């Protein structure tokens, strides 16, 4: 069996090497000729999978190591009898980590003492948005959720109107990208809705780029009393509007879900589906193939304030300002050399540094310390020092 896979899907050799011969390819430039003899195709969101790519090939199984599936024509695959698998929820904790780190930097910027009293509007409460809502509620955040389909299904969440959500201190987007139906999300935030956001507010998009009308957002950011904006996803990736990148408070290259754990969970999920399809047992498990983290432990004394400890722990795992700096530097160098910006954007993802989630980090605190509460609610392993 021949498996063709995106070169940036990690640990495939460990998870799928027993199933067939593995050929790595550039997912963005993949063409049909590279799939003539393939039985299996494993992709990420940069590859459009449809009849134009697969018609006339021997591919009978397609897996995407991503939550989203809007890059895959699943209906065409079904009509052709091609088995399809995705990885729903695989990087939810990674995206939650991204948002919490952005929020922590925002709180420091706004000189707010902590998460208490902060209001966050979450648009889209599926695997990722739902996990974020639970983390925020545990931290004492005033959360409002806009997700009409889930509300109609009777989900137990703090639902509010979209108007109310847009009045929150922070608005975070986590919807899938849909272009039809009563709750289509393409350009959900258009010029009219963006005009309701003002100075002091923060808009975060780590879901799908086209959920925001990027040109309308750029115009809004050029007007007085504009909000702060942190974008991880963009229209026209990998070539977002240069002026929009320049105008954002934080600009990152579609990496919110790119923790090592998040990426490897996606690999594990599609590998398991592939093994089931092939009628084989999968011997490898995620815990057995993850390398040890570079930083495994922090130790806080009784002099640290709880919010300072939480901020420092979050930044020790992931500081979004690092990704912002790397992206801006890469794009500037590409411009200076006359090279394509898209290649520079993609290179940031291809060579993304290893990032670990809070669960990989043990944090030691004094016994009985209030510091432990926020840390544990953000997913860190908390150890009281006297019990070590």
UniProtKB/TrEMBL annotation:
Which reactions appear under catalytic activity for this entry? 4-phospho-D-erythronate + NAD(+) = (R)-3-hydroxy-2-oxo-4-phosphooxybutanoate + NADH + H(+)
InterPro entries in the cross-refs: D-iso_2-hydroxyacid_DH_PdxB (IPR050418), D-isomer_2_OHA_DH_cat_dom (IPR006139), D-isomer_DH_NAD-bd (IPR006140), Erythronate-4-P_DHase (IPR020921), Erythronate-4-P_DHase_dimer (IPR024531), NAD(P)-bd_dom_sf (IPR036291), PdxB_dimer_sf (IPR038251)
UniProt domain Erythronate-4-phosphate dehydrogenase dimerisation: residue ranges? 289-370
| Region (Disordered) residue spans | 338-370
Which amino acids does the record list as binding NAD(+)? 147, 175, 232, 257
Q: Which residues form the D-isomer specific 2-hydroxyacid dehydrogenase NAD-binding domain?
A: 116-256
Domain D-isomer specific 2-hydroxyacid dehydrogenase catalytic, which positions? Answer: 30-277
Its pathway is: Cofactor biosynthesis; pyridoxine 5'-phosphate biosynthesis; pyridoxine 5'-phosphate from D-erythrose 4-phosphate: step 2/5
Q: Is Transport among the key words of this record?
A: no
Q: Which GO terms describe its molecular function?
A: 4-phosphoerythronate dehydrogenase activity
Protein residues bound to substrate = 45, 66
Identify the EC number(s). 1.1.1.290
The listed locations are: Cytoplasm
Function field: Catalyzes the oxidation of erythronate-4-phosphate to 3-hydroxy-2-oxo-4-phosphonooxybutanoate.
List, alphabetically, the HAMAP family matched: PdxB (MF_01825)
The protein's assembly and partners: Homodimer.
Indicate the family of this protein.
Belongs to the D-isomer specific 2-hydroxyacid dehydrogenase family. PdxB subfamily.
Instruction: Report the protein name in the record.
Output: Erythronate-4-phosphate dehydrogenase
